[in-house]
Inverse folding.
């Protein structure tokens, strides 16, 4: 069983962006609006058969958010956004859980919608890079998650069936995409993240990576 991890919000805490949004908009809640705009952007480009790098979409989402609120977004604001994104801190449970999973013999893969350079920087800054066997980016195939092609890319890398992968994320859309490709799925209910189990039921569901890891290991032993 190969574990595949989403990065932003799942392992790294995007709440570190809050001061920037408070400074620009005077309202920390606008951070959520920006992220939804960013998600809309990469899903739209994927559905349209196009591809633009994550950094360009992140800056565009910030400019669009500014237009909605009548706030001028400067080049410096956009630079600060990208600078903070590559230095996000890990959630407190991230490193301990990954260490235990690695010690238990699991192969750990990072899969991000960001670029490979950016995610390598993120994981190095967070002290997590050495915990992963491999780090992959959809930038290599120019197709964003939740396209099934993104998860097949991981399976092809490991030369296994997608059925041998467990996609772990704090986003329901990510897990629905993974399941459609044939993967098993694990949902982490990070703050503000929910999943409608009447629409989609992940294989594992927990409020922390610690608990999710315990569930995984217990099921494998059983």
């Amino acid at each position: 069983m190969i574990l595949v991890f989403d990065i932003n919000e799942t392992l790294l805490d995007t709440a570190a962006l809050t001061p920037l949004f408070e400074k620009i908009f005077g309202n920390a809640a606008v951070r959520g609006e920006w992220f939804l705009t960013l998600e809309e952007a990469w899903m739209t480009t994927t559905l349209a058969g196009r591809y633009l790098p994550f950094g360009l979409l992140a800056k565009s989402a910030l400019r669009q958010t500014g237009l909605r609120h009548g706030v001028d977004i400067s080049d410096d604001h956009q630079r600060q956004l990208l600078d903070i994104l590559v230095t996000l801190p890990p959630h407190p449970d991230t490193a301990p859980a990954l260490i235990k999973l690695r010690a238990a013999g699991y192969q750990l893969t990072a899969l991000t919608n960001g670029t490979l350079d950016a995610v390598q920087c993120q994981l190095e800054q967070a002290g997590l890079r050495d915990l992963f066997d491999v780090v992959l980016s959809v930038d290599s195939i120019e197709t964003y998650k939740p396209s099934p092609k993104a998860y097949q890319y991981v399976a092809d890398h490991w030369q296994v069936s997608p059925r041998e992968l467990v996609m772990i994320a704090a986003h329901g859309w990510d897990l629905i995409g993974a399941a459609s490709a044939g993967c098993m799925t694990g949902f982490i209910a990070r703050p503000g993240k929910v999943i409608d189990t009447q629409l989609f039921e992940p294989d594992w569901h927990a409020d922390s990576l610690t608990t999710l890891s315990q569930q995984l290991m217990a099921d494998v032993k059983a």
Notes: The chain has two domains: 2-13+89-221, 14-85. Residues 14-85 form a domain with the DNA polymerase; domain 1 fold (CATH 1.10.150.240). The beta strands are 2-5, 107-112, 134-137, 165-169, 184-188, 204-206.
